[in-house]
Specification:
The chain is α/β, with parallel strands linked by helices. Helix content is about 40%, strand content about 20%. The chain has 2 domains: about 160 residues, Aspartate Aminotransferase, domain 1 (Alpha-Beta Complex), CATH 3.90.1150; about 240 residues, Type I PLP-dependent aspartate aminotransferase-like (Major domain) (Aspartate Aminotransferase, domain 2, 3-Layer(aba) Sandwich), CATH 3.40.640. Bound molecules: pyridoxal-5'-phosphate.
Length: about 425
Amino acid sequence: MKRKTAIISDFKQHVSSQKVAFFKKYGMDFVLGERENIRIEDIENGTELINLHCNGGVFNLGHRNPQIIAALKEALDHFDIGNHHFISLERAKAAKMLSDLMPGDLTYTVFGVSGGEATDTAIKVARSFTQKQKIISVKGGYHGHTGFALATGDEKYRKPFGDELPGFEQCTFGDIGSLQSAIDANTAAVILETIPATLGMPVPSPEYMQNIRQLCDENQVLLILDEVQSGLGRTGKLWAFEHYDIVPDIVILGKGLSGGIYPISATVLRKPLESVFHPDPFIHISTFGGAEPGCIVLQKVLEISSSPDFLAHVNHMATIFKAETDKLIEKHGSFLVGLRQKGLMMGLELKDTDCGPLLTKTAYDNGLLIVYANNDKRVCQLLPPLITREDQVPEIMAKLDKALSKARKLRPLLKVRNLVTGLLKSADR
Ligand SMILES: Cc1ncc(COP(=O)(O)O)c(C=O)c1O
């Protein structure tokens, strides 16, 4: 344990003292070591977890996917970051591939390094194109922690960091009336995740999504869909918006685009929107965005994720996860009450808001990495790697079954503890 103790000490002193304190408190001081396929291992103590969170889709293709590694190794024989000012072979190929795989005239791509950056770019383009200011997002949605992306998010993420940026408003997800009343003559764009992950995977109805598209059209407002988590085959179609028969004006991609190996993100624009860069094509720069090794990785990711066999596999696995989860709902109905699902984008719906953090911990203790949805703690996000095989499901479900049994046992104790904490707080007042 000496090596691990030293790592934790360095991390505590030089990266984050409070992350160390948090993970210690909950007995989860995992230090990432070997990783392969659907599994990650602690660097020292033998703890092994099946990754059912995948960092929100970064590991769609599993950990250290051999095809991605081979593509990157080959790239490194010929390429480096490249030059973000020059015309680039690999950037052109990657953007053309995205264009070929997108519907309609979503033909231009601006590359970045993160989902937050890609969101910021989308908002810049929307404001410049429409010459309007207001950006409407949904409460509980999440698009990143950078400038404009942060401004679209909930107050709790923004408040500690200073004054509000003007021109941002939130509406209620699933409520078309709430969006309708937020739209005014100064509205540039509506931005939302096709399925909001941090809000606990509420799956929108086709009618809702189509009404949003229609409202945007009627009011000359752009529709930005964030597919950072829901894109790249996660829902059983390459793009989640394909389930809804709509075409957005801007699509934001990140996470899985990296193949879990090389950071890259993309803001895909409808053709007319590229005109915002006509007066000055150098007005928006990202030194590392669209780095050439990243573009090569992205091409491999797209090639794998768009293949009909791959998507058929995702859909097949989705039916298996549904059938197996239904059995667990039957067995643990007092704790696990439902499954939110579109393909392998899933949320375990639990009894109350204490349950998400509790199940996250008992799942960890039973060898599964799942994480509760931060903006709806009644839900645990369930995002297995898309390459998960059928023969791996029994082990996953056996561990989940044990985690649910343990969580059910602990829940009454948690309630007592919360009651005591509550009483102590009121006594303090
Ligand atoms: C839907 C969605 N959009 C955007 C982001 C931001 O991505 P990044 O962390 O790469 O900036 C995230 C990150 O979790 C996300 O889940």
